[in-house]
Amino acid sequence: MLDTIHKRKLKVHSVFYSIQSEGFNSGRATVFIKLFNPNLAYNRKHYNILSTKDIVDSCIEKQSKKNEIKCDFVQILGGDTTPLRDLYCLVTCLRHRGFKYIALETDGADDLLTGIFDWVTITPDSNNNFYIHKKNNPNEIKYIVNEYFTPVVIRNSKCGLIYLQPEIGNRESFRKAVRIVKENPKWMLSLKTRI
User: Fold this and answer.
1) Cβ(130)–Cβ(143) under 8 Å?
2) Number of structural domains, the chain?
3) What is the domain extent for residue 149?
């Protein structure tokens, strides 16, 4: 069975090792797997089709020349259009190779495989009216504060960690996010750090 899981193929934009720069896990050394998502501009033309084994090998190679795991935290980005069975295979392969903490960041519009991720961040898409599938139970929700964002979209959220994140380089977005957090002190400001 593991052989079949290792052979599962996914569309991958990039794998890299850096520091998590936003939300609850900000500041943490992280191996990122950025999956293909046709809805994102940076992703439309450039991706590779890799087996789950090749993806995991790349996660190890990016952080160590000695083929050892120094950082056991993996953040899977995108994947909003990736079939759930493929995400399950990827997570199974990562765990088999020794990665202990696996997080997913997604737009949350589709039902997720609950229980396979250690941490789930939902960043709802403003192009989809900030919609979050009702079955999703994320650890944190991060709203990008743009011209379309209004606090009304959060009112019915049961998630304990709500972050508002200004658009990078947009002063008006920053002022709006700060004002809304001051008006709603249970919510927090997330400032993306460029690393």
Assistant:
1) yes
2) 1
3) 2-189
CA-CA distance, 71 to 73, in Å (whole number)? 6
**Does some domain include residue 84?**
yes
Backbone angles phi, psi at 182, to 5 degrees: -65, -35
- Expressed in angstroms, the distance from the first to the final Cα of the chain is 39
**What sign does the dihedral 179-149-133-108 (CA atoms) show?**
negative
Q: What is the mean pLDDT of residues 171-192?
A: 95
Whether 6 has a pLDDT exceeding 90, the answer reads no
Summarize pLDDT for 54-110 with one digit per residue, the tens.
999 999 988 877 777 889 999 999 766 677 788 888 999 999 999 999 999 988 877
Rounded to whole angstroms, how far apart are CA atoms 50 and 20? 24
Cα 55 to the chain's mean position, in Å?
16
